[in-house]
Specification:
By secondary structure, the protein is mostly helical. The protein has one domain: Hypothetical protein af1432 (Orthogonal Bundle). It is built from ten helices and no strands.
Amino acid sequence: MALSARFAEAFLFANQLHGGQMRKGTAIPYIAHLLAVTSIVLENGGDEDEAIAALLHDAIEDQGGEPTRQEIRRRFGNTVVAIVDGCSDADEFPKPPWRERKEAYIDHLRVTTASVRLVAGADKLHNARSVLADYRVVGESLWQRFHGGKEGTLWYYRSAANALAEMGRTPLIAELERVVSEIERLAYGGPL
């Protein structure tokens, strides 16, 4: 499948929205995460709308709420905005309490569309891979980056993986489960 000019426009828009951001606790430009998620989506059979949604999956939640939602709808259509909405755990500021948001999001993963599961699964997989890699380098201090700390973060990734697996095991979800299991093994006593 060839990607069209819409995808190029989405990349430029994502870079405009997230260009000044870095990944938590790193000097890695945030756009690297968006590109990685997009790559995972495309490698797992995603179409152009799903790839565009992958580029923009954090835009509503982190870069403007409703005005950003309307701009995504205007530029890329209802399908893309529905996927991005499905990947967002909050669009208001201040955000609701962390645990409450994450529990509601996990419940949502159990009943959402295949497109949202694909993009959300790709997002969780890339994040889990990053957690695993960083944990091997910085050890226990890693957990200070996350609102949920060690226990909450581990709970969240396991719960998200389980919820996605309940809706159907795919190679992507199987890989997410393997990465989360490796993080748990290291966090609960395995060698770094």
